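Sat 14:20. Reprocessing the chain from the morning session after the first attempt stalled halfway. Input below, unchanged.
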Amino acid sequence: MHIAFHGAAGNVTGSCFLIECRGKRVLIDCGLYQGKRELEEDNRNDFGFDPAAIDYLLLTHAHLDHCGRIPLLSKWGFRGKIITTSATRELARLVMLDAARIQEEEARYRNYKASKKKNQGEPIEPLYDTLDALNCLDAFSGTVDFSKAIDLCPGIRASFFNAGHILGSAGILLELEDTGRRRRVLFSGDIGYDDRALLPDPAPPPHADAVIMETTYGNREHKRLGPSLDELYRAINTTVARRGNVLIPSFALERAQELLYYLREGIEKGLLDRNLPVYLDSPMAISATQIFRRHRECFDEETWKVIASGHDPFALPGLHMVRDTAESMALKQARGAVIIAGSGMCTGGRIRHHLRHNLWRPESSVIFVGYAADGTLGRRIINGNDEVRIFQEDVEVNAEVYTIGGFSAHADQQELLNWHARTGNPEQTFLVHGEEVARQAFAALLTDTEIRLPTLHQRFTL
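Finished this time. Tokens:
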């Protein structure tokens, strides 16, 4: 029995782990690298294994850095089965098709720019296209319920349990048996945190012999939700009062829906103007919100109370859903509005257009409510750069910049420690999915377990 780390080893993105047992190969996640140009180029490299040799792919959740390379895996020969929860299956389809569209548009744009140069070089191809994304959907062979074990094959049993990170997100326990030896291997996935809107708290993890654990916030704690909401409402009111726009770069899955929930709540409590214009400028976030409405079995009790009272948890009086490109472009004329657009790290999507039109305005604000990886446009703005480059233009950063940590979908350091303590003193703990400073800091806090800090493509015996 072996495990190999083909992503998220020494960085935050690109989740991809390979288990070998009894001649079978089980992949946990297959995500895109995001951030620096060097990381994005890694997406075109070999996986570190033969895609055609993979028998099963178990998907923890639908974020791009966990599912974004599945179309490429299929394109390069994968013919196994993909198993995940029902909500993740729907969201992953949306995410992968959107990623294909963005890559096609990016390739067209770069080829257009190259066509104006004397030395054009080879034309740029997208990592995968829409047809590749559609083709890989055939591999989604079934869905699983939380806490119900399924036998993949003799000697390999899998159980999914609620991770509380985004809709349908899961941690995965693999029970392995080979030549009389048994090992319980636990994959945390991305761990959510307690007492947040929409989703129930993460389920207690089962005991395990080996734990593969995320450390995104392994070196710090979040601001609590109450003060975070106060800061959000205060930032919006202050900005709108001076006729500036509030830009909120947001991940389309979970964060956008959570923001709508809290904006509705703020209006109902009289903390925000009832006529506040709010634009959800993200076709993917709009579609994701519709998927959320179909999976109410994933909601927590508080959200159910809102629904039971006859209210839509995502509806507010001044909300405008923006799908059309022309309508999105017209928002450059908006003043005193809240604009929620993807992506959360500002690596793509419509938020970059809004930043180009608003970032230089001192009356406007940008509110970051989630993690931005090193090397992304979002991180450069958060770090206080006086000027950033957007669409080949240098744009001054004069807008007020807020970073509000209480909305993160990831557990913070203390919550990660609490989660690990409940896994039953595992013999080995492999720390992944964090920048090096974060996982080193978290490793120093763990006791009674052998700590492993895997590097890319490193393989271990279980």
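The two ends are 6 Å apart (CA to CA).
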